[in-house]
Specification:
By secondary structure, this protein is an alpha+beta fold. Helices cover about 30% and strands about 25% of the residues.
C-alpha cells in the first residue's frame, strides 16, 4: 500500500510540474539581466538635449560659451609692448606699462606699429591740455577692435601706456 501512495504522489507532482509552465517563466525572468542603454555625450558642435544618462558612464561637462578674444590675445599683446617701457601689470587681455619717453614719441611708435599690421580702421584721439597729454588709439582688424591709451600728466615724469582689447 505504501508503494501505491508513493507512486501516486510522484505522478501528481510530475503532472503538476508539466501542466504548470508559470514556474519556469518566473525563473527565466529572474535570471534575465537588465538592459543598459548608453547615451552619446554631447559634442562641442551640438546643443546638448536632456536625455537619460547611463549610471555606468560619467556625464560630460556642460560646455559654456568662451569669452571673445580679440586679435589673437597673446600675439597682439606681445607685439605691442613698448620697447622702452616697463611692464607694471599684465592680464589675459591687457598690459599696463610706464616709460620715461615723451607721449609723442610713444604715439609715433604705435602709429608705425599699427600701420605695419594692416588694420582697416585706425583713429587717434589726441588731447593736450597745459602739460597733460592723452593719446587714445582705437583700431579695427577683421571686425575686432583694440585700444592703446598713452597718458602723461604734468605732475608725473612717467608716461603710462595701457594696451587692451
Amino acid at each position: 500500500m505504501n508503494i501505491v501512495l508513493i507512486i501516486a504522489t510522484i505522478i501528481i507532482i510530475a503532472l503538476g510540474v508539466i501542466h504548470n509552465p508559470r514556474t519556469s517563466k518566473v525563473l527565466s525572468e529572474q535570471t534575465k539581466q537588465p538592459e543598459i542603454t548608453k547615451t552619446p555625450a554631447p559634442t562641442a558642435s551640438t546643443t546638448p538635449t536632456p536625455s537619460p544618462i547611463s549610471t555606468l558612464e560619467p556625464q560630460s561637462p556642460t560646455l559654456s560659451p568662451q569669452p571673445t578674444i580679440y586679435l589673437e590675445s597673446n600675439d597682439f599683446l606681445k607685439s605691442f609692448i613698448y620697447p622702452n617701457g616697463q611692464i607694471n601689470s599684465q592680464s589675459q587681455n591687457s598690459i599696463s606699462q610706464e616709460t620715461d619717453d615723451q607721449p609723442g614719441t610713444v604715439q609715433k611708435w604705435y602709429e608705425d606699429r599699427v600701420n605695419g599690421k594692416g588694420f582697416s580702421k585706425v583713429s587717434w584721439n589726441i588731447k593736450n591740455h597745459n602739460s597733460d597729454s592723452d593719446y587714445t588709439l582705437e583700431c579695427v582688424q577683421n571686425g575686432k577692435s583694440a585700444h592703446v591709451n598713452i597718458k602723461r600728466s604734468s605732475s608725473n615724469s612717467k608716461t603710462s601706456i595701457s594696451i587692451g582689447y
